[in-house]
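Quarterly update from the structural biology core.
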Amino acid sequence: MRFWMFFTKPELLDWIDDLEENVTQMPGTTVGIHKYGGTEFNYMGKEFAHVHSNGLLDILLNKELKQSLMTEGKIKDHHLFKNSGWISFYLQNKQDLGYACYLLNKAYDHTKQKQNSIQLDTI
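Predicted structure, tokenized:
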């Protein structure tokens, strides 16, 4: 699909590259290939988001933040896991990139806090 996007919407590939660069600036993160295609973003081995080559960005938030952000109308319930903290957001234009980075930062903060509390519980 990435090959197809290269011909139909090449700017989308640049936006995805920008997302990857944003995430790699976050301490403790890694970028890899997602099991269902696309690029996966992890914090200390725990996935907190992934982006498909068609611009669909799936992000794990806590349920409270998810509900709050959904009232703004910019995000949607995850296309498969509706009763979870997962949301879906489509990159459709250059302006969406800033909001996507905002969402990724929120997901990173949530995952980092959760992982750090798990580590403290095991000590």
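Residues 96-121 form the longest helix (26 residues).
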